[in-house]
Structures are given as structure tokens and as C-alpha cells.
Amino acid sequence: MEVRRSVLAMFFWAFVVGGLICVIGQLLMDVFKLTPAHTLTILVVAGAILNGLGLYEPLIDFAGAGATIPITSFGNALVHGAMQEAEKHGIVGVLTGMFEVTSAGISAAIVFGFIGALLFRPKG
After folding, report:
1. Residue 79 half-sphere exposure, CB side, CA atoms within 13 Å?
2. Domain locations in the chain?
């Protein structure tokens, strides 16, 4: 019974935190009339800043997928990789670390986007 409660709590907090990140993005577009590109940029930078301050990893530990799925996690991954590689390789690691950590996700997006373009016809 205890395991079931912890799993339900994990799902609940992932839903709440992920939902709050999405609500923030929606408010940026609806209330402040920002474009989706501006909103995306703000959320990525917010994730990067939170990682730089050491706040994003505790959020991931608390909310799990609720913090790793939204776009803020991309900013977190960029800074996390850059800081990790900078410790090993200095200033060059700042650049290579960003690419190393995010390359799998970006590659998957390109491949699946290409497959989707091959399989489906755009409406026009």
C-alpha cells in the first residue's frame, strides 16, 4: 500500500509541476501577448538559469517527468552539459558539453521529423 501511495504522489506532483510550467507558458502568450517563439525562448532560458542556480535538479528529483518533459528541461540540459564538461576541459568544454548532452534529443527530433514528412502530406 505504501508503494502505491508513493507512485500516486509521484504522478500527482509530475502532473502539477509540468502543468504549472505549461500554465506559465500559456500566460506568457495570453496575458503578455508574446509569440510562441518568445515564450519558448523565455522557458528555455528560465530552465538554464534555474540549473545555474542549482534549483532545477532538486525540481527534477521532486517532480520527475513533470520537470524533465517541458521545454525548460532543454535549457537545464544545455547548462548542465556545459558546466559538467567545463570542469573537465575548461572553456572548450562549455561549447562541447552543450552539444554532447543534447545531441541525442536533437538527432531524434530531426530523424522523426523527416520520417513524419515522408509519411504525411501537409494540408495546404
Report:
1. 18
2. 2-119
pTM score of the predicted model? 0.80
Instruction: Provide the grid cell at 57.
Output: 535538479
What is the grid cell recorded at 11? 504522478
Dihedral angle sign, alpha carbons of residues 109, 112, 117, 120: negative
SS3 per residue for the chain: CHHHHHHHHHHHHHHHHHHHHHHHHHHHHHCCCCCHHHHHHHHHHHHHHHHHCCCHHHHHHHHCHHHHCCCHHHHHHHHHHHHHHHHHHCHHHHHHHHHHHHHHHHHHHHHHHHHHHHHCCCCC
pLDDT digits (tens, 9 = 90+) for 103-113: 888 889 899 99
